[in-house]
Amino acid sequence: MSEERPPYDAAQEAADDEVRAGDADAWAKACAEDLAAEKARRRTQYGPPPGSAAEELRKLVDAVADKLSGLQSPLFGSVAGGAAQQVVNQVVQQAKAAVEPVIERNPDVFDHLATAGSELLAAYRSAVEAQERRWTTRDTGPGDEDPGPGERIDLD
Fold first, then answer.
1. What angle do CA 102, 108, 114 make, to 5 degrees?
2. How far, in Å, CA of 56 to CA of 62, rounded?
3. pTM score over 0.85
4. Which of 10, 50, 120, 121 is least enclosed, having the fewest CB within 10 Å?
């Protein structure tokens, strides 16, 4: 029993390829819509996501500059207050002018520094937790012969 194959139909194969491509496009579109909906849900629940470390540093510099520019110092008195305020504003502008190019040229550096800081904090936290665990599980009963590396002090 031999089965006969239908003759090759190029038009049918092209139509089948178009349907498969349409299915892939529909899948990609559905995934993109789901992702956009999830991002919108998170934005409403948690607020806008934080920017990069460089953007956050820029925001910090701007906030500090605004705060310093708005301070009125009673130390200088009313006569020197205007001149002192001008000096503060000039220093703030110079600091912003010095920091801004560094942030612009090296935005990835600040992301790496933020990541390194997080990793250092995690390592420190792990070390402290391990030490606390050793302190809290140490048996210090009256029959202990080995008090550990420290010296036992009798307070009687």
1. 100
2. 10
3. no
4. 10
